[in-house]
Amino acid sequence: MKLIKIGTLVLGLLAFSNVNAQEKKEKRDPKVVFERLDTNKDAKLSLEELEARDEKVKEGGNEAKKPVDTKTMFERKDKNKDGFLDLEEFSARPPKKK
């Protein structure tokens, strides 16, 4: 009987661990992040939408270890200089530093 309880507990922990890992993976998916940040659902991100995210992070006390200059990051990613980031621009990795 004790063995059954322990086995059930282990299976429960494994199931929880798998669900938690899937949630973390979704949080890192650029498309999921993009859709979450795109508050007006126009399929593009404005600087204001990104800055609003920064304010929410600050209010929640979850400031990043290394502060990000949102405006500079936005300007670097906005390749076509239209004042918005589409999913492709948002998802693009920055070039590696030499």
From TrEMBL:
Coiled coil: none annotated. Keywords: Signal. Residues 65-98 form the EF-hand domain. It comes from the Bacteria. InterPro entries: EF-hand-dom_pair (IPR011992), EF_Hand_1_Ca_BS (IPR018247), EF_hand_dom (IPR002048). The keyword Signal applies. Residues 1-21 form the signal peptide. One of its GO terms (molecular function) is calcium ion binding. The keyword Transport does not apply. This is EF-hand domain-containing protein. It comes from Formosa agariphila (strain DSM 15362 / KCTC 12365 / LMG 23005 / KMM 3901 / M-2Alg 35-1).
